[in-house]
């Protein structure tokens, strides 16, 4: 069986000014400038709030999926509330308006990932899936707790609908714990250190908090990713997905296959043709 190894390591940059004033700090975990290396992951932002209150304004998306992982705190908008550990998986598809009247708590931190969509699904009807941490399947073994938000890990399979095959797992390891995860060898994958330190892959590359380790596709079949926690344990997020190997153009909140398609998104939004995400999701 093919065994994964870390091929390159990056770090989440120091937080800088965000889009919502002095209380909002942000950094790019994945910059949108090297899709061949990050495919199907286009970008990922690390958003942090020092003082709660209104956050941003309603805005559109089209041609992509956003995956919002609430690391700390909470966020609420017209569609409901996301608590720590919850994930909003929003497929923008042909177009959607998002984050209406959003408010956030002091100390909120979230990761927002943008996924490109396959050409055949890029203009699919939009949908919103709310993945509650308390409802997600878990894979457990001695010293290991893995919450599966998308894809499959061991005997835990998430019910999440995917346009692009994606695995998303929150992995918590006790001190010195070992864990091995199976992934399709065709997937591009990365892990983000959230707490502690972990040795990753066949070369036991050490990843600490705010480090990002990348593992490219390996061919066909199955692959194995080995993890071992350091003395203080570790928490990491594992993202893996099937590369789409397509060319895209991006501008603002839209990702398209051509400049003409991009112009069509802008025209449809200006004409009020995008539905509102708040009407597609609600609290349980």
Automatic annotation (TrEMBL):
Binding site for Fe cation: 59, 61, 98, 100
GO molecular-function term, one example from the UniProt record: metal ion binding
Keywords: Iron, Metal-binding
InterPro entries: Pirin (IPR012093), Pirin_C_dom (IPR008778), Pirin_N_dom (IPR003829), RmlC-like_jellyroll (IPR014710), RmlC_Cupin_sf (IPR011051)
Pfam families membership: Pirin, Pirin_C
Transmembrane portions of the chain: none
Residues covered by the Pirin N-terminal domain: 46-115
Pirin C-terminal domain location: 169-274
Cofactor(s) needed: Fe cation
Cofactor binding note of this UniProt entry: Binds 1 Fe cation per subunit.
Keyword Magnesium carried by entry: no
Family: Belongs to the pirin family.
Protein name (Swiss-Prot/TrEMBL): Nuclease PIN
